[in-house]
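Exercise 7b. Backbone tokens:
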């Protein structure tokens, strides 16, 4: 392990980190991550989908430390993505052997990438955090549900969690053209031209790629297949990767479909328990988003009639190069709102239901520029005495007394 550790911690020898690792461009969330890292002792957990830039943010933090004057030998980085080591103390001891830094007494910074692959990682971190206040930990993981659950169960009061999302439209433009956008309204016309391309390429590495077949291959193989064939089997012992692939194709090809376990069980010839378990795995790894059927009268969600969306619109294009853009926009809105609920009653349906400050807000998504029929929203508002509603569509952003109509581009830019 000594050779591996020396290789990936090149700053021990060079005294600096390479620009290829600590890329010059910093995500919008970096400042918040840096402030949290600098001001608090707590463990900083970075979670999010594969390839959104969690490792890059770690390297940028390391770069910040070195430039601030911290001894490079006191900074340890380790990735569990390709290494099966599961004993954190063993890694620290190898670190001590190489650098001669006594980690038990001296101030050090420890960056652990893809931590979710270590069984019992949160208990190990808890013991180290409680007994060695000289160590500052930053950890990352792609399986956000697992990270959040373990952190809540074992690290209460000892961590801050930061979700690293796929890049925003503004970040897409800045990465593509190397131009800083200080005011999105001034650049709105240029950003509009990039919007639909952005929906297909929300990962930093592929922003400048022009070959759409390569884009699809990257998202399919480097993101989705890696999660299905490597990440999930590393965490769970009973993963059927073939079943996951079948479910992914069904869900990505049919955004917003009603989740019918009985039908899936019959068509795929798998037990219902097996189907349910693998749907959880897909949600766990941020490949899909499950939206529950909301019952305002009872203030709870029904387990029946749940809907499933790809986690991000880009996943739709893997199986459908020319999909229904209405479904792409609906998936985009679900992503932007982090949608958890929708509403359905007989033949009436509201795309999403938000709960804000104790209020229920119905949300409709339409791909048209002019929307004349909002009967379902009117019905919902009258039935449940709701005062506000939102419409996301291709028309101009405007407000009426009860309905806020917002253009998709304005939603992407956060200017509604």
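Sequence design result:
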């Amino acid at each position: 392990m000594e050779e591996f550790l020396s290789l990936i911690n090149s700053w021990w020898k060079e005294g600096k980190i390479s620009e290829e690792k600590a890329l010059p461009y910093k995500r919008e969330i970096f400042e918040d991550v840096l402030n949290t890292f600098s001001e608090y002792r707590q463990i900083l957990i970075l979670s999010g989908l594969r390839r959104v830039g969690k490792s890059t943010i770690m390297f940028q933090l390391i770069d910040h430390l070195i430039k601030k004057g911290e001894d490079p030998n006191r900074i340890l980085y380790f990735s569990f993505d390709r290494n099966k080591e599961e004993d954190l103390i063993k890694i620290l001891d190898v670190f001590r052997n190489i650098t001669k830094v006594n980690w038990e007494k001296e101030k050090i910074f420890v960056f652990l990438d893809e931590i979710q692959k270590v069984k019992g990682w949160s208990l190990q971190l808890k013991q180290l955090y409680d007994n060695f206040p000289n160590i500052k930990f930053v950890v990352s993981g792609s399986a956000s549900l697992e990270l959040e659950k373990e952190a809540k169960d074992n690290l209460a009061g000892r961590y801050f969690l930061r979700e690293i999302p796929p890049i925003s439209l503004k970040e897409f433009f800045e990465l593509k053209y190397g131009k800083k956008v200080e005011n999105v309204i001034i650049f709105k016309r240029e950003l509009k031209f990039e919007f639909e391309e952005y929906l297909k390429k929300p990962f930093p590495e592929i922003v400048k790629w022009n070959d759409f077949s390569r884009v699809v291959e990257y998202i399919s193989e480097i993101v989705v297949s890696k999660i299905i064939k490597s990440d999930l089997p590393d965490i769970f012992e009973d993963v059927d990767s073939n079943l996951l692939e079948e479910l992914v194709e069904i869900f990505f090809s049919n955004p917003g479909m009603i989740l019918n376990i009985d039908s899936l069980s019959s068509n795929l010839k798998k037990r219902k328990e097996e189907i349910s378990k693998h749907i959880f795995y897909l949600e766990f790894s941020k490949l899909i988003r499950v939206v529950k059927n909301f019952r305002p009268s009872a203030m709870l969600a029904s387990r029946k009639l749940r809907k499933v969306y790809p986690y991000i619109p880009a996943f739709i294009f893997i199986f459908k190069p020319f999909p229904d853009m209405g479904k792409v926009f609906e998936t985009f809105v679900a992503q932007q709102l982090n949608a958890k609920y929708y509403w359905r009653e007989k033949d009436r349906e509201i795309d999403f239901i938000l709960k804000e400050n104790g209020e229920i807000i119905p949300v409709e998504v339409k791909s048209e520029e002019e929307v004349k029929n909002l009967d379902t929203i009117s019905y919902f508002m009258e039935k449940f005495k709701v005062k506000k509603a939102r419409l996301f569509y291709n028309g101009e952003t405007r407000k009426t007394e009860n309905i806020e109509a917002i253009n998709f581009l304005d939603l992407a830019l956060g200017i509604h």
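Instructor comment: The two ends are 52 Å apart (CA to CA). The chain is about 45% helix and 20% strand.
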